[in-house]
Backbone:
């Protein structure tokens, strides 16, 4: 039967037209738990699925001011919050991001008509996989705020957002989502790759050189920068991270504290798994110090220990994945790759891995997550479900994202 549509909503018409274009211009947004700023990646994306091709036309991280950081921290990763404040922040964050998008475009002499759609990750407020909350009658859950409708209206650009909910609805934990974009743009035949991203929480995607989707998976490994950043902010007002590992390099690793930090059931769970600052935070550090009688350990020795803690948990997870393989290519991205001591530890702990950064693959390491969400949005609008056929380490074969129109 042939169906003829004599009328179509203009928003639907726009989507049909965009999906049919040989190339789409997409703005990918990423705002991580470190709250450094909003990563904005302007991407030219052609094709979809295995034929996806990405060119990053422009990238910028617009820093958050102290007021933005304080507002988010008032509700971030807390079991009990001011519900009114959380409600107010949902549109407010979206409008801050929209202003940043508009400035980004204006500074490059671009208009809303030059962009097909925005891909917004939003701001993670709480991540609660069932393995973490352990409440019998509830499943996996996660919450990102920064409403897509407000971004769409304030920029005049179609916005795709709230990607993680479909992942959970389809049986996942809502994270990590990097596996989808990593697979589409970074897989290479005959080269085993690990795409390591070190944000607040560290995660990686394993991409076998066989291109066998049944072997592909993505997992969190534990803390990346989150505990180090939190300690810096608590101890040195106005400092948000340990720049060049200046504090950690003045200290000495305390092996007793390190063993206590690594004594958590998360590290024994099978892949894939997710976690967040809800688990690995300053309270976790304090409990480990109390358990070992090290409450008076200097900030320098504590930072040195936290640095090796992140590196050790990352390396341990990757060792399990490599299973004795040599010449695995590891491509690093995220804020952690700018920490020279963290990278030194990882290189020492993974002597059989060939260490690179994603810039060697054409994607700036700081832009990678924003680019990946642009790829997810491209699949939402113009692609289809990527089939992983993975039963042991299930990756839901779904497209993700909710579509908001500007009018």
Residues:
């Amino acid at each position: 039967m042939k169906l003829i549509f004599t009328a179509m909503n203009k928003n639907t018409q726009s989507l049909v037209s965009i999906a049919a274009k040989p190339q789409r211009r997409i703005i990918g947004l990423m705002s991580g738990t470190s709250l450094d700023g909003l990563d904005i990646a302007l991407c030219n994306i052609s094709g979809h699925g295995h034929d996806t091709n990405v060119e990053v036309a422009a990238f910028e991280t617009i820093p958050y001011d102290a007021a933005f950081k304080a507002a988010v921290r008032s509700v971030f990763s807390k079991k009990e919050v001011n519900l009114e404040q959380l409600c107010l922040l949902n549109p407010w964050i979206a409008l801050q991001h929209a202003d940043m998008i508009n400035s980004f475009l204006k500074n490059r002499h671009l208009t809303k008509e030059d962009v097909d759609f925005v891909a917004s990750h939003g701001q993670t407020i709480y991540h609660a996989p069932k393995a973490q909350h352990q409440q019998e009658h509830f499943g996996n859950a996660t919450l990102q705020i920064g409403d897509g409708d407000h971004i769409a209206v304030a920029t005049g650009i179609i916005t795709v957002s709230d990607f993680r909910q479909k992942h959970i609805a389809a049986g996942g934990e809502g994270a990590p989502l990097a596996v989808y974009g990593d697979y589409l743009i970074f897989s290479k035949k005959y080269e085993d790759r690990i795409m390591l991203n070190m944000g607040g929480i560290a995660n990686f995607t394993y991409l076998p050189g066989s291109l066998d989707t049944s072997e592909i998976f993505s997992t969190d490994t534990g803390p990346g920068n989150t505990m180090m950043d939190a300690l810096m902010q608590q101890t040195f007002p106005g400092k948000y991270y340990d720049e060049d590992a200046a504090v950690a390099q003045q200290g000495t690793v305390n092996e007793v504290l390190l063993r206590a930090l690594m004594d958590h059931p998360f590290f024994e769970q099978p892949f894939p798994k997710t976690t967040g600052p809800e688990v690995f935070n300053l309270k976790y550090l304090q409990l480990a110090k109390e358990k070992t009688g090290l409450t008076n350990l200097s900030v320098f020795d504590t930072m040195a220990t936290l640095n090796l803690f992140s590196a050790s948990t990352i390396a341990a997870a990757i060792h399990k994945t490599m299973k004795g393989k040599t010449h695995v290519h590891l491509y690093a991205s995220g804020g952690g790759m700018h920490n020279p001591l963290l990278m030194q530890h990882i290189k020492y702990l993974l002597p059989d891995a060939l260490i690179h950064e994603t810039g060697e693959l054409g994607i700036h390491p700081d832009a990678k997550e924003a680019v990946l969400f642009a790829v997810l949005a491209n699949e939402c609008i113009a692609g289809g479900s990527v089939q992983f056929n993975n039963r042991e380490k299930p990756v839901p074969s779904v497209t993700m994202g909710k579509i908001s129109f500007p009018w």
The domain at 23-174 is CATH 3.30.420.40 (Nucleotidyltransferase; domain 5). The mean pLDDT is 93.
